[in-house]
Amino acid sequence: MVELADTRDLGSRGESCAGSSPVAPTIFAEQNESSRTTDTDQTQNLTEIGSRKVKFPQVIRHRKAEATIYGRTASYSHYRLSYRAGGKRHLRTFATYSEVLEAAKNVVRELADGSQSVALTSKEASDALAIRDALDAYRRDTGRSLTALQSVTAYLDAAKILPSGISLTDMAQGYLRTVAVVSRKLLSEAVESFLEMRRPKAAPLPGKRPTLHPTYVKDTSRYLREFSNMFPGHAVADLNRDLLNLYATSRADLSAKSRNDRRTTLGMFIRWCSRRDYLPVNHRLLEADGLRKETTDSAPIDFYRHGELRALLDNADQEMRVVIALQSLAGLRLEEVLRLDWNDVFGRPEHVEISSSKSKTRQRRLVEISPTLEQWLIPYRGMEGKVVTRWKSANTYTQAFTKLLRSLKLHPRRNGLRHGFVTFHLAMHANEGLTSALAGNSPTVIHQHYRGLATKAEAEKWFAVAPPEPTENIVPMLAIGE
């Protein structure tokens, strides 16, 4: 037996095990007390370490703590360190005597100081550090402190009473849903608060389009006021699925699309009320049968033909002509054209640029200018400012366009120019991905609504509608009104 003070010079004279590389210490936890005597009997030997001979097993002591080193034998190619900690026997292996001696001195010091860290396996030590980090994060997030013992004990106490397969987190969330405090708010007041919150989003900022379309905000306001007026004196918390079903059935005179629009608006309002604690989290109002969307039959796509396009372009005035050309030969939506500047048309070679602020979907895209469209745009080169200045809204432009249709005795077709572009472009190229990229729609929409509506020969006629004569003599638009 060697005292700790007598072994300080041995750590620097240990030798490596011949033919083997150093191995990281490994901890084994054993509870079989009888193995200690057998192991000791088998490893009694005398080994020469450097210039000294060391007898094994070698006991290292520090105060009342002790650890035993076993030497290498024919059966064991490594040095072993044995000690008891935490009520268990632990056995670690080392490649060299210097390593095992240094480890033994550290172990007896920690045991003598009352430390139990040597009783942990490597995984247990890693877990303990992870628990410490988790508790630190909990303290930072909540301002509350817990010890590892408190947190584990509380978890185990809760786990004992939980049904099998139910987590503590699930139970806590269920509890919060059950006891959440709901603020009582009159339905009419909640509707006005919701609408007031959305109203600024319909106001355009300088140089930018509004976040929400004013018409859309106006429609949703009408839908929600209609709903709240049906249940005067009710609080939001009084709502139930029966009331929602009653509201839905009261709109039987409307089209399926109009009823679906109201369902969408009402669902948006209910989710907002839940976030504001006017409804409990587990309200389940959105499961009402009356809020289930109806299947609607899409109206058939209708579009102008090449002869009608020729008549429109030939008879439109100069400002309306460019709108017609951009819709029919580039596939732009009317409101996108109304937002364009001339720099968007001519700023990128051979392309019209629809920025995210001017696109209906708020996704930027480039539309190639076809040779035919290029001919129609020649008279407008060099112009600056807005493409359209006479009409401030889609409604006022549509009124003027309808007047042109009547003068030509043409039947109006809703979005017929843009539908014509998409239909004929798909027929010409048979490429849904390419057509969808130019039109700003998804390939699925293109496939479902435009496939097979026209032949390639018809498409060639559409994209051949060029100016009938040189357009250099057209009076520049800047001179109009001067």
Structure description:
With 482 residues, the chain is of the alpha+beta class. The strands form 3 sheets. A 6-stranded mixed beta sheet has the order 1-5-6-7-8-2, covered by helices on one side. β6 and β7 (79-85) form a beta hairpin. The protein has 3 domains: 2-120, no CATH class; 187-291, DNA polymerase, domain 1 (Orthogonal Bundle); 306-479, hpI Integrase, Chain A, CATH 1.10.443. It is elongated and about 115 Å long. α7 (214-230) packs across α9, α11 packs antiparallel against α14 and α16 (416-429) packs across α19 (456-462). It has helices at residues 35-42, 97-112, 122-142, 148-161, 168-179, 187-198, 214-230, 241-249, 256-275, 306-315, 318-330, 334-339, 342-346, 371-377, 394-407, 416-429, 432-439, 443-450, 456-462; strands at 2-3, 26-30, 45-49, 52-56, 58-62, 65-70, 79-85, 88-94, 351-354, 365-368. Helices cover 46% and strands 10% of the residues. It is built from 19 helices and 10 strands. The chain starts with a strand and ends in a 20-residue tail after the last helix.
Key terms:
single chain, alpha+beta, 46% helix, elongated, disordered C terminus
In quaternary terms, these chains amount to single chain
CATH architecture of the largest domain: Orthogonal Bundle
Give the overall average pLDDT. 82
Overall morphology: elongated
According to DSSP, the number of beta strands is 10
What is the count of DSSP helices, taking H or I runs of 4+ residues?
Answer: 19
Approximate helicity band: 40-55%
Reading the helices and strands in chain order gives: EEHEEEEEEHHHHHHHHHHHHEEHHHHHH
What is the class of the largest domain in the CATH system? Mainly Alpha
CATH topology of the largest domain: hpI Integrase, Chain A
Largest sheet: 6 strands, mixed
Q: What number of structural domains do the residues give?
A: 3
Structural class: alpha+beta
Rg calculated over all Cα atoms: 41 Å
Major β-sheet strand ordering: 1-5-6-7-8-2
The CATH H-level superfamily of the largest domain is Intergrase catalytic core
Instruction: Extract low-pLDDT stretches.
Output: 1-43, 473-482
Beta-strand residue fraction: 5-15%
Distance between the termini: 115 Å
